[in-house]
Amino acid sequence: MMKNEKGGVLIAVVVIACIGTIASMVTFQATNISVNTSREKRLNTSLLNIAEAGKEHALALLRSGEVVPEANSSTTIVDATAFSNGVYSVLCEANADVTQVSLTSTATVGEKSKSLKVGCAVSGCEKDVEFEIDDGTVVPGEEFKAYATVLGAAFQFNYGGYYDAPITLRLTIGGTTVDPWGDFNDHEEGNVNDHANPRTYYFDTSFPANSAVSVQAKAYNKVSSSSYSEYRTVNSTPENDYVWVLRDGDDVPDVEGFRDQGAIADFVDDYIVDGKISLTENQAIYLFEMYTALSGSTADFQDVVVLLTLAPPGADFTAKCGPGKTEAEAMTVNNYRLESVAGASSGKVLKLTGESGAAVSEFIGSSASYYVEIGYVDEDDGDCSFMLLVDDVEIGSWIADEVSSGWDHKIQSFSSVLISEGQEIKIQGMKNGSEYARIDYIDIVPPGAWREKFELSDGSSSDNGATAWSSNSSGGTASVQGELFKVSDTEVTWTSESIDISQETSVDISLDITADGDMESSGGSMDYFKAYYSIDGGGEIPVEEKYGSFSDQSIAVTDIAGSSLQIIIRAKTTAGSEYYTIDNVYVIPEVTVEEPECVGNEYTVTSWKEL
Question: Is the pLDDT reported for residue 133 higher than 70?
Fold first, then answer.
């Protein structure tokens, strides 16, 4: 290189030196960029984590009920809370009915801040719906749902003796008018003065704010021994002296009932605390006086008593049920009304008010395969139909067409019905002719139950099957007849097998019995029915003892504990025209299902984004 006369060696060194310097600069700059990016990422991650912590803190406060957002509000619910190497604060914003809430969580580290926003759909406990009473009309100030309950009715006229005068009801909300319990203009179809209260009607839809709520009542009186005419109609709107509207904290009116009727306090007894009306802020009670006189003993203001309850638009009115028997009147109903019927499970059934309707409950028991029975009424004046559905999936349907004369209580059963917690159980009814698809009850029998339904050949006097039993008698009839165990002109002892109940906390016993004929309750020809049970081979414990005739009924005893159980029935009739029957002998594991208590709200995250 020294031989280069042009100084080439120097040039080469300089070039190499320059290249080295450039390379060093590039390397330095790249390293510098890498360091800055890493710091930024760490800071970014830290801010995100802190904002996330703020969001969770705010959600916990909301879900516990410690913080309750206000409608159309924007409030800081968490302020400057330290976390890791920074702090967070959270702003809460709610819409008009507090069904949508947003949380803006802002994290700060040094001079750097970052905000994240989460949207939440809100569901949970029923909230009070504020309303005013304007000229006798309830006027809610926000969107709402509603239901009405007839707490009671008592109104009488004198026509050859005092009688219960029919009363019908109509509800009007905004532009919607409903006859909840039958035709407002039909004293038979719509009568609520029938000793079958309380009865409740749930509106399916919500109504906009300022939709006025009013109640009308119509009374009928006899114009002949067999016909009625309209007596008068009383409307809660406009305000008048014939309707009193009570709210929480009002004094209980000190008014006695006419003749032998109850006083106002008797009708609203469940809503009295320390002598005051005790309601939630979203309830009101209407007291109607249907007679023209507003003074004297006839003005008792309990001719019909209606409780109105308002709820937020997202409220769920569906009744809850667990394993065991649920009376139809305890279910949420649509187009059904309550009716008193002799021989029904509780003395009451549901009767259609239109062409079709449904009774619904949400199941709150354990998910399992259940045996399901539905009690209903079959009549001779039509062939109505029914359907059982679980979460709107049909389990089965049937037609009530077995009775050729009069009416009879029937049972439709389904085996191995899979029901999960939270599913909706629905009984649908469809009217036919003059048969109103009457529903009595639904019985959801859990696995492990002992059930004897006497589905055996006529003449059977024992059973060696899964539900074994035996009987001995002195002659006459003591055997299965038409899927009933019939006792006539004999004395019999019916005994179940020893039933293993060692795996159960406790069990319930139930059975259905009937009596027919001119029976005697004393003397040498006395007829009797007696039921007992024995635990672990011990002495007989009485369940029921009856003498002579009695109405069709169910017998039950609950909370029986032990290792083994035996049922013993002794019955006697003294003539072939007299008989007792036994059916549906059940031993059911007792299942305690507590309806979940509503605490706070559930805030379901619907979005989460960086601002």
Answer: yes
